[in-house]
Amino acid sequence: MEPVTLFSALFVIMVTIHLLLELWLSARQVRSVQQHRPTVPEHFSDNLTLEAHQKAADYTTARQKLGQIELLYGTVLLLAWTLGGGLQWLDQLWRGFGFEPLYLGVGFILSLMLIGTLLELPFSLYRTFILEAQFGFNRTTRATYIGDLGKQFLLLLLIGAPFVGVILWLMGLASPYWWLQVWAVWMGFTLLMIWAWPTFLAPLFNKFSPLENENLANRIEALLQQAGFDCDGIFIMDGSKRSGHGNAYFTGLGKKRRIVFYDTLLETLSEEEVLAVLAHELGHFHNNHIKKRLLLGAATTLFSLAILGWLIEQPWFYQGLGMDTPSHHAALVLFLTASAPFTFWLQPMMAAYSRKHEFEADDFAAEHTAAKDLITALAALYRENASTVTPDWLYSAYHDSHPPAPVRIAHLEQREK
After folding, report:
1. What is the per-residue pLDDT across 281-334, written as a single tens digit (0 to 9) for each?
2. CB-hemisphere CA count at 13 Å for 150?
3. Domain segments of the chain: what residues?
4. Which of 72, 257, 264, 362 has its CA 20 to 30 A from that of 89?
5. Helices (H) and strands (E) in the chain, counts
6. Three-state DSSP class for residue 333
7. What are the phi and psi torsion angles at 99 (to 5°)?
8. What is the DSSP code (8-state) at residue 179?
9. Cα-Cα end-to-end distance for the chain
């Protein structure tokens, strides 16, 4: 069998395996939450009403069924773009304008991203204005939704286009180790975005106000000093502008680090529970989880670019995925497009690594606040976000970056004892 035909067949096989696996896991998740729908689990009987439990089961089921349709749709699009000739058509369209290779590549990639956004728009609209609204979570207005799309498009032009241009320029250099240079720029850009996001980019989408509750602010400051954490401030984000879901996080690098609470979170939790959630987030900082994930991401990116450095010289790589004309922009797009079907088996390992960090952060929180406060906070978040507390164990092991609710609560109850 010719290398081109062999690679095309292998690609189709991997896409099919990935699709069937995801559909099977999704079906298991739906079956699990529906089987447990009639009764609230014992661990949550004091913090979760039957009505809230059943709402979470129905919300999870609705999201899974929509996800199954999206998965089928995305698989059809993937095959259409590659073996169906979509990328080849778009590439030839841009070549017809007679641009220099660098501008041709930037235009090709940006237009592909724009078309992809438009093709996914129906699902985004349905999820926001129908599914989320059906369960009482959506607070996004049409004006806000359109404004977000416009801002994302401007950022794509102002930040994405120059970044893509630099990457393609480096790929076009004669150096055999161009992929090392691309990796250095890629990681530098990643760190720059992490640094710039809280101060310059996030405020384009949300308002961030200083925490006005003086008593809570003083208690938070004491916890920060105890954990040895310096930050740029404690802010409240108007998450209720778009959704009823609540969350908390810290973001940024160096002196630009800041702690952010959704306003919806503060409406849900007591001060003790807020401190417990914050202690969990500080546990990630204390255990260097952010640095570890950045290092893992850097190593993964370096390895991936080294593989791309080899594939870019292989004619069967382009032809096997539906493109006749080798180019740097084609190699980059094909590699990013085709990587998921070949690397999906890594997902459960990455999820397990993330869950390990979550347990460590919970342990830190239990040492610096009361474990029972984190338990009740988590129960409140599960309730308010309609997160199921009865997930399928295999689906959770494959997908979830956080431990399943019963396992996490049991772990904290053990720490409390």
Report:
1. 889 988 989 899 999 999 999 999 999 999 999 999 999 999 999 999 999 999
2. 7
3. 3-181+291-349
4. 72
5. 18, 4
6. helix
7. -75, 160
8. H
9. 63
How many whole angstroms separate alpha carbon 250 and alpha carbon 255?
Answer: 12
Identity at 413, one-letter amino acid code:
E
Lowest mean pLDDT among 107-121, 162-176, 244-258: 244-258
> DSSP string of 250-302?
EE-SGGG-EEEEEHHHHHHS-HHHHHHHHHHHHHHHHTTHHHHHHHHHHHHHH
Contact 145, 128 (CB under 8 A): yes
81: tokens are 């773009």
Q: Where are the alpha helices (DSSP H) in 197-255?
A: 214-227
Phi, psi of 236 (to 5 degrees): -110, 125
On the 0-12 / 13-18 / 19+ scale of CB atoms within 10 A, 1 is: exposed
Question: Which residue in 379, 138, 380 sits closest to 239, CA to CA?
Answer: 138
d(CA 416, CA 373): 10
The tokens describing 12, both together, are: 């189709």
Q: What string of DSSP letters covers 353-406?
A: HHHHHHHHHHHHHHHHS-HHHHHHHHHHHHHHTT--SS--HHHHHHH-SS--HH
pTM of the model: 0.92
